[in-house]
């Protein structure tokens, strides 16, 4: 089962507002665990009308792995 929030890309219409004005681009995403924060730049489908962002399964898996590493203090900040 795909993670919550995962979508099949490419996306033709925004699920939130229905707009067909969506585009692929790189976005910054903050991943938090406790007091630790990591900023990732990842691919996303973004609605140009309402700003809703959609991520594929692999990107969501990377968020989850990054969060686990933050929780265990396994990231050194380099």
Beta-strand proportion? 25-35%
Largest sheet: 3 strands, antiparallel
Distance between the first and last residues' Cα: 33 Å
The general outline is: elongated
Spatially, the strands of the biggest sheet line up as 1-2-3
Work out the number of β strands: 3
- The percentage helix is 10-25%
Describe the structure.
The model has no long low-confidence stretch (mean pLDDT 88). Helix content is 19%, strand content 33%. It has one helix and three strands; from the N terminus they run βββα. It has one helix spanning 57-71, and strands at residues 22-33, 36-47, 53-54. The chain is α+β, with helices and mostly antiparallel strands and 78 residues long. A three-stranded antiparallel β-sheet has the order 1-2-3.
Produce the secondary structure layout.
Layout: E1 22-33, E2 36-47, E3 53-54, H1 57-71
Antiparallel strand pairs: 1-2, 2-3
Task: List the main descriptive attributes of the protein structure presented here.
three-stranded antiparallel β-sheet, alpha+beta, 78 residues, elongated
Put the structure in a nutshell.
The chain is of the alpha+beta class. The protein is built from one helix and three strands.
């Amino acid at each position: 089962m795909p993670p919550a929030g995962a979508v099949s890309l490419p996306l033709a219409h925004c699920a939130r507002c229905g707009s067909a004005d969506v585009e692929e681009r790189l976005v910054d995403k903050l991943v938090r665990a406790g007091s630790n924060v990591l900023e990732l730049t990842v691919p996303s489908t973004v609605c140009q009308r309402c700003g809703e962002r959609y991520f594929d399964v692999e990107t969501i898996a990377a968020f989850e792995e990054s969060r686990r590493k933050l929780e265990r203090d396994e990231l050194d900040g380099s």
